[in-house]
Automatic annotation (TrEMBL), chain A:
It holds the Pfam family Sigma70_r4_2. InterPro entries: RNA_pol_sigma-70-like (IPR039425), RNA_pol_sigma-70_dom (IPR014284), RNA_pol_sigma70_r2 (IPR007627), RNA_pol_sigma70_r4_t2 (IPR013249), RNA_pol_sigma_r2 (IPR013325), RNA_pol_sigma_r3/r4-like (IPR013324), WH-like_DNA-bd_sf (IPR036388). Transmembrane segments: none annotated. Residues 44-111 form the RNA polymerase sigma-70 region domain. Residues 1-21 are annotated as: Disordered. This is Sigma-70 family RNA polymerase sigma factor. SUPFAM superfamilies: Sigma2 domain of RNA polymerase sigma factors, Sigma3 and sigma4 domains of RNA polymerase sigma factors. The keyword Transcription applies. Residues 142-193 form the RNA polymerase sigma factor 70 region 4 type domain. Belongs to the sigma-70 factor family. ECF subfamily. It comes from Mesorhizobium liriopis. The lineage of its organism: Bacteria, Pseudomonadati, Pseudomonadota, Alphaproteobacteria, Hyphomicrobiales. Keywords: Sigma factor, Transcription, Transcription regulation.
UniProtKB/TrEMBL annotation, chain B:
Keywords: Membrane, Transmembrane, Transmembrane helix. This is Anti-sigma factor. It comes from Mesorhizobium liriopis. Residues 218-229 have a biased composition (Low complexity). The keyword Cell wall biogenesis/degradation does not apply.
Amino acid sequence: MTATTAIPAATPNGTPYGTPTGTHDISKLIVRTSLRDRAAFDLLYRHTSAKLFGVCLRVLKDRTEAEEALQEVFVKIWSKADRFAVSELSPISWLVAVARNHAIDRLRARRVPAADLDAALEVADQAPSPEAQAIAGGEGVRLHRCLEELEADRADAVRGAYLRGDTYEELAARFSVPLNTMRTWLRRSLLKLKDCLER
Amino acid sequence: MSHVDEQGEQGGDDLVAAEYVLGVLSAPEREAAARRVDADRAFAQIVDAWEARLAPLAAAYAEEAPPASVKAAIDRRLFASASDVARRGKTGIWSSLAFWRALSAAGIAAALLLAVQPLMQRPADLTQDRLVASLDAQNSDVRYLALYDRAADRVSLSHVSGERATDRDFELWMIEGQNAPVSVGVVPSGNTITLQLTDDLRAKLAAGAVLAISVEPTGGSPTGQPTGPVVAAGGLRDI
């Protein structure tokens, strides 16, 4: 018998908040999932689905579509869990990347009538980043500090693009600048961020 | 798209990777980037680096529990024929490992050779991008997942279960054919360990060598050959 009982049983009511799960445990769950361990997959879902659903909701802004996307995200996690071993990302970052990429792909594939797009842009948030406060922890502090070195609207464009998966066109419309200006802004901002983080 | 060409000149892969991770690319550009991530390990690492840089932004995604119907739908999609998700079968040969503990140090090395022979059915196809080995044994709860990555020319070991005793280390061995086991090194404790392959080890892997983990005194085997019980072993297979 190999031991498959190293992961503690989940709380009976299945709440994702009841059992704090560290990075180490999530790694193990992903690796065990890659070995087709269904119990590990169930636990992984329990501990991470709320975060990944949050990603899908924010990007897709539609509950039904976010629910479908989350299904597809976990199907991908099941079938591609082995990739985690060769990635250098932390387990949560890896999972978020899978979810974000999938949600953004879905967003791009969506055919949006122009009128709806305009309406969506109008109601979208222009307020300066509430995200700024939500960033916490060592790496988060560094990234936040580097974002502060950018001009405020450019930092907002970076945050907005990351969190919502906006295209250059949408960002240009939101910030009322020409498309090429937005493209230049973001590219320069990304390179500045990288320089700052490597200092 | 014309600006793709422009950026190819200006920022190269780093900028494409950054834009891909940020999420601003169009559908065809995203598709092209995703294909490169799958095919080009160097590009995938640049993308990973950007994912890591921007990852703290994800703290702003508010958690929200999905409805139970989502998990039910996932299970239907993945496990509709529930009977085929039985645990992976075990090769019966590991029952013979139980007596290894009783053997002398020299005997253990010999027994290790005997025991891994059945695993060496065919050479590993190292032209595959990724090969995987599940390292385990019936008499122990130690389990590692080994992943060979051709592009990076390295083997990653992911710890799945089983802890080492306080005054013991795990040592990784490569065993090819009738040859004596060759030490790959002491396995550092931790979650994921990466071993860069030497020419010698790569040749052995290509020849169908098996990976095995034995329990050794702290710092590794004093003799250069396995001295303690083998707690996990396995051969590389295509994923």
